[in-house]
Write a structure and sequence with these properties.
Length: 500
């Protein structure tokens, strides 16, 4: 016993010594990095050891994290250096930086460890999906899918989406209010937008309500702070989440394999149906280099990654419509003007949706004030020859770059009265300065589905407003608010609506 105690004491002492040495090294390294990066403007440090972490934590506790970034940009300029303990980060709101950041996929790389890749060791969308991938394979996939999401294919997507929304899904909404007039908007819109996938070739996948619940569970777990994620490891939630994600992937694999076999067996030269999303995903994943055909198992696995991606990003449209109603709650005149247009304008054809001018203005302004994508991170590989980041000399090999769509959308340099919800700013011919408005991101990684998303949001709003009287019924003590601490928008508290 004594020997064991002594051994453990020695190990403990060695571990403590190693930890102290490691911390000392990091602090020396931190001082060196600060000398290297000193030319970039930065707020005063909270302390030598913690950097700006106390200010960041305080802002997060107050749900004002992005407001802190806005303040920093306003005070110190378009590029701001800040530290989380000894690690340097650069926050940029500089269009001259955002352009290469959005187009140069070699020197500005996505981080490989982002939490939507996997959870508790269970793959979600992986690292090669249409959202998370990069390189030649990703470029080939994106070009292949661009035809499906192109503007000239919206007519076909509208033709199948409209009868679905006015039929099965509208009946579901009508049945809801038979049991009470108040509904939680995010929950019900999640089912609506998941149900759209049924008419896009995924009708044999999960039922919309089941899919919406599983997506909500995954999105609830992904952005948890690190210490909360570690607490999952010793709870039953870890196993539940692993099984939930695994079952979604199994279900996606089954329908993909079935559709893949159909396409191979038919061996037809006929083009795919324009609304067959699953078929187009299979075609887009058949090759990694444009020449060699992938093995069937590899194709199916890649398509499953993309199906999981599509399911998760459908929630962005849900949150966008919810945030629109949150903004309209204090702008009743604007809401009534939008409702009047939605009630009176026919929506028999896609061209009719395009005539919803004021509704589109409201959506564009909502996308500005509450974008689904709030912020992002890139790893910048500093050029060995020039050793520059923009106009600054940087002696680091790599620098972590933060950017924020939200911060850009509230910059008074580009937006008059940026905190005012003003649809009228979106007059015909108005074009925001490059990279000042990025609700669907921009450049090479711009959202492929942005036109389809706008079509589906306008269609959903039109059908609901034509069939119901809708008013906000928010809890005065706990109104819905946007969570500023997440990279992808989350809404705290219920978005309760009154429908009759």
């Amino acid at each position: 016993m004594a020997a064991r105690f002594c051994t453990e004491a020695v190990v403990s002492t060695q571990s403590t010594g190693f930890y102290c040495l490691k911390r000392s090294y990091h602090h020396i390294e931190s001082i060196t990095k600060r000398l290297y990066l000193a030319a970039i403007p930065q707020p005063p440090l909270d302390s030598i050891l913690s950097g700006h972490l106390p200010s960041v934590n305080k802002a997060k506790d107050q749900n004002k994290f992005l407001d802190l970034w806005i303040d920093w940009i306003g005070i110190y300029g378009k590029n701001v250096l800040f530290y989380i303990q000894y690690r340097p980060f650069i926050l940029t709101a500089d269009p001259a930086i955002l352009k290469p950041l959005s187009t140069d996929l070699t020197n500005y790389c996505k981080l490989p460890t982002l939490p939507n890749r996997s959870l508790f060791g269970q793959k979600i969308i992986g690292g090669d999906s249409i959202l998370s991938g990069g390189g030649l394979r990703w470029g080939i996939k994106r070009r292949s899918l661009s035809h499906f999401f192109a503007k000239n294919n919206l007519e076909e997507l509208f033709k199948v989406s409209k009868p679905h929304m006015e039929g099965r899904d509208l009946n579901r909404w009508k049945n809801l209010i038979q049991n009470g007039n108040t509904i939680e908007l995010h929950e019900q819109l999640s089912i609506t937008f998941c149900s759209y996938l049924q008419v896009l070739g995924l009708e044999k996948f999960l039922q919309p309500d089941d899919m919406a619940n599983k997506v909500a569970d995954i999105l609830e777990a992904i952005p948890k702070p690190l210490f909360e994620r570690y607490s999952y490891l010793i709870s039953s939630d870890k196993t539940r989440m692993q099984k939930l994600i695994q079952q979604m992937r199994i279900d996606a694999q089954e329908i993909t394999q079935e559709r893949y076999d159909e396409l191979i067996n038919n061996n037809s030269s006929e083009p795919l149906p324009k609304v067959d999303l699953l078929g187009h995903l299979i075609e887009a994943n058949k090759t990694n280099d444009g020449e060699t055909v992938n093995e069937p198992d590899e194709v199916v696995e890649a398509v499953v990654d993309d199906i999981m991606t599509v399911c998760l990003v459908m929630d962005n449209m849900v949150k966008q419509v919810c945030s629109l109603f949150m903004l309209l709650e204090k702008n009743t005149e604007i809401q009534e003007k939008m409702f009047e247009e939605l009630r009176t304008q026919p929506i028999d054809r896609l061209q009719d949706l395009n005539k919803l001018d004021y509704t589109e203005k409201c959506l564009l302004e909502s996308l500005r004030m509450a974008p689904a994508l709030l912020r992002g991170t890139r790893k910048y590989k500093v050029n060995k020859e020039t050793k520059r980041f923009g106009s600054y000399v940087v002696l680091e090999k790599e620098v972590r770059i933060h950017f924020s769509e939200y911060v850009m959308h509230y910059n008074p340099e580009w937006w008059t009265n940026p905190k005012v919800f003003d649809p009228e700013r979106w007059q015909p011919g108005f074009v925001p300065p490059a990279f000042s408005y990025m609700p669907f991101y921009a450049g090479s990684r711009g959202c492929l589905g942005k036109h389809m998303a706008m079509m589906m949001m306008k269609l959903t709003l039109a059908v609901l407003v034509k069939n119901f009287s809708i008013t906000q019924n928010f809890d005065a003590a706990k109104p819905p608010i946007m969570n500023q601490n997440m990279a992808v928008m989350r809404i705290n508290n219920n978005v309760d609506m009154h429908l009759t």
